[in-house]
Amino acid sequence: MEDNGVGWIAAIIIGGLAGWLAEMFMKSNMGILMNILLGIVGAIVANALLGLFGIVLGGWIGYLIAGFIGACILIALGRAIRR
């Protein structure tokens, strides 16, 4: 996170926003704590996956985009496991 120019407090805020956007997009119903966790973990997952293809997203906007993509992936995986 520090490499992307995003500190811990900003990561929590951006992660919460990314998780909330993913929750709205995927039409799931989770709490604010889960949104923050999904956004932060989602950003880590998405940055790792995108890094395999040589795509690097940096800064606040990149972290938000990666968090949204990763949170959507995690929500979809959670749904697939529950079935």
Task: Write the topology of this structure.
Elements lengths: L7 H19 L5 H21 L6 H24 L1
Helix pairs in contact: 1-2, 1-3, 2-3
Number-wise, the strands total 0
The helix-strand sequence is HHH
C-alpha geometry: globular
Which percent range fits the helix content? over 70%
Estimated structural class: mainly alpha
* Low-pLDDT residue intervals, each spanning 5 or more residues: none
Strand content: under 5%
> For the CA atoms, what is the radius of gyration?
12 Å
Question: What's the short version?
Answer:
This protein has 83 residues and is mainly alpha-helical.
Describe this structure in words.
The mean pLDDT is 85. This protein has one domain (8-82). It is built from 3 helices and no strands. The chain has 83 residues and is mainly alpha-helical. Helix content is 77%, strand content 0%. It starts with 7 loop residues before the first helix and ends with a helix. The longest helix has 24 residues, at 59-82.
Comma- or semicolon-separated keywords:
single chain, mainly alpha, globular
